[in-house]
Amino acid sequence: MQHKGLLLRIMLLGLLSVSPLTLADQSEIYLLGRFTYKGTPVSKAVLLADKRVTELEQCRDFVRYQIRGNQRGINYYRHHIRAQRKGVNIFPHYACIQTDLRVSEWNDYDFYDKVYLIDLRGGQRFTRYKDTNSCWAAIRKEPDKHSKKLFCAKMSQTLG
To answer: Do the beta carbons of residue 43 and residue 25 sit within 8 Å?
Structure first.
């Protein structure tokens, strides 16, 4: 009988250690890649995760030294920008974010049919819209509508 009580206490202790308070800080570090076609307002965006990146500063160093700089070393966020037809220029922009959003895995061959208003001013906020025109209309209402940290992008990933 005494073993049952001990076993029950151990199980209860185990459940308490995985309580919502413990799970609340399960945020991940993502590399937000935004790819803009030169001369157009069209952008695609992806959120890439890498289990080896545990600190936001580690992601920022990767962007600073390996993407924008000339150092090569550990390639955390492996992705390739596919070659486009002649005359098409794609400009990549990168930012590191930490969020507790659930993000589906990225597959470049999926349809980029989800439109998000991405607001990186003072944190990050992703708002889904049914189409690109609705998203741009929401940006036009913003007083800071020309900010580079506020943009519409098509994504193949689901955020929740």
So the answer is: no
